[in-house]
Amino acid sequence: MGVRPTTTLTPTPAGTVSSLIADSEEGGPALAAGPLLRTAKATPTPVPDGHVYTLSPTAADIGWVTSGEDWGNHFGDSFLYAGIFKGQIYQGAFQFDLNAIPRGAPIYYASIQMTGLRDDRLSQDGIWMLRLLSPEVDQDWRRHNYQDIFNAPILETLNPALGSQDLAAGQTYVFELSAAQLKTLETRIITDENPKISFRLDGPLVGPDNLFAWDTGYGSQSQENKVTLLLSAGPPPATPPSFNYVVVTSTPTPENVVTAAAIALQMTADTARIGTATPVPLNMATATPIPDSLVIVPTPTAENPATAAAFKTIATAEALTTGTPTPIPTNAVTATPLPTSTPTPDYVLITATPTVESIFAAATLFAAAIAQAQEFGTPTPLPAHWVTPIVVTATPTPANAATAQTITLLATIIAFTTGTPTATPANMVTATPTPVFEFIPLLFTPTPTPATPFPQFVPPTLLGKILFHSNREGDDTDHIYMFDPANGQLARLTDSWPYEVVLAREAWSADLRWQVLTKDAIRYQDVGSGNDQEGRREDVPALYVFDRLYNVEKQLTFFGLGIAYGGVWSPMAEKVAFVSNDSGDDEIWVANADGSQFLQLTSSNEQFNAREIGKDTFIPEINKHPSWSPDGTQIVFTSNRTGNDQLWIMNADGSDQRLLMGWDNWTPYTDWGPVWVKYLDQPPH
């Protein structure tokens, strides 16, 4: 990839976030490789007429960001931090330049290799994941701050997910790209003129200090173990595919500030009602009409040498930042404005929505607006002659001549950059804000109820095993059993608390930010007929998604007939598996966490139910208690389809449903409530 650029490190003053990440002695005891750990692989053999490429980010494209800093990043640092430390969230980020890969060449293999550099701030729990980011974050990569990186949409999560027991300084980790992720690389190279691909390292977002760092390959503390993208590609086509441009019609410029404000409010209302607009594609091209004559506004003549010097300085700055101006075409004409009289309309005063103080408040207001729209309908449209009340603050009298000169200079600069101020309208009113709250005395002090303590962590030996209830020992008390899918061994737990911990952890995402939970939702059913028809309210169980970071929740399921419950979060994707009887019987479903792509995975034997219903021996077929495998590719669940509750397993798309234990699709025991252990930490309390 060429000569490695030299990075100059500037010491950070004491007291800043960087002082919390001060360099320390490397080394320490090596950690044992856990079940999800991968080790470095040799360079693959090129396919015939193909080539193996090894890419690394430049120093300016790799580093870390933190929630403790509003601006900037730490690209070019030696460390690639991810995790939490002293209440601040740290995320690693890096970007590869894919211009070296021939356009149209098929990609057969790709992996990302990273080496640990610092492990002295690790705790005993937490999950670290490598995320492939959406292409809109690729632009202006080196200018991104924490909010840009943190809020970037995620396309894919690479395998494996790493626990704290897997991480150690000096250990090399390999993340292999799946077939779908290889296709994303090929598409990015074909469609982008300057193809890039960006990744983010996510660690724990909440909890005690838990921070790990990989080596960027740059800086004074690096061991020169660069992050590498190893890629095996076939020969490119004889004729590279052409770029597909998207023609975008530009939005017309508002005629005045009132029109601009109305457009902004309409866009806000549309966003709350139907969602944000589709981002402009990177391969866009704006259609520019060719005018018969080009109208040119003449540049005003400078009134004195100082103004002329200011004009010259501004022109020099524009040339340095945006390039020299386009020459005036031969068909240019100078515009001469015609004076017109504008009647003063009868305005309707509209109080503006106050600007939120933080992104947390914005998310809360957004969720509340969605809930109100769903319950009461969309807001009444703004009238055509609306106007926001204007609050006017008197300009203070300058205290001395120097202050007066500064105010005059500031007004001159504003006039140059944004134009002269708008004149005060004749119908100006002074707005009196309505109080948001009133102070009241504290009525009572709640007494917290202490929670029953559990041991800190689930025993590591249970990771990857399936825990479940069973009556197979013949007594009236059910026990918790463990089944190992790797070797088929069965064991009974000596204590039930690990099952209770991993069962509670099922509803949470791997990073402990998201939770799926069951709550009663309001639903109306039409009863009666004709003129006597009316809506009857029902309170039915439904799934909700809770964002722990912003303390916001939204309803996920809106079934018209059935209920939904028992949601569990996928460890590798923003997906939820759950139980619903919307189709008639309890069945396993999956859906995206944003409320899209609902899919029923299991189906009851309707012929059996229809034939047996009404008999004393009839037991309806049900499927419930789903639990994801650690890699997110399979689901274990409970089904009584053969007469008694047994454990079944299927692929994440519902295919290949089969009995987990037993023979001839039968076992004499009653087994239920499986949990596939994916994490060792406890859920939030």
Briefly, what is this?
The protein is an alpha+beta fold and 685 residues long. Helix content is 15%, strand content 28%.
Q: If you had to describe this structure to a student in words, what would you say it looks like?
A:
It is built from eight helices and 32 strands. With 685 residues, the protein is of the alpha+beta class. Among the domains are: 31-233, Jelly Rolls (Sandwich); 460-676, Neuraminidase (6 Propeller). Strands 1, 2, 3, 4, 5, 6, 7, 8, 9, 10 and 11 form an eleven-stranded antiparallel β-sheet that branches. The chain has a four-stranded antiparallel β-sheet with strand order 20-19-18-32, covered by helices on one side. Strand 30 (646-651) and strand 31 form a beta hairpin. It is globular. Mean pLDDT is 80; it is low at 1-39 and 434-452.
CATH class value of the domain at 460-676: Mainly Beta
CATH architecture of the domain at 460-676: 6 Propeller
Proportion in helices: 10-25%
| Whole-number mean pLDDT | 80
User: Distance between termini?
Assistant: 49 Å
Structural class based on helices, strands and sheet pairing? alpha+beta
Q: What radius of gyration results from the CA coordinates?
A: 32 Å
Stated plainly, the CATH topology of the domain at 460-676 is called Neuraminidase
Shape: globular
Model regions low in confidence, pLDDT < 50 over at least 5 residues: 1-39, 434-452
Fraction in beta strands: 25-35%
Chain oligomer state = single chain
Number of helical elements = 8
Largest sheet: 11 strands, antiparallel
> Based on DSSP secondary structure assignment, what is the total number of beta strands?
32
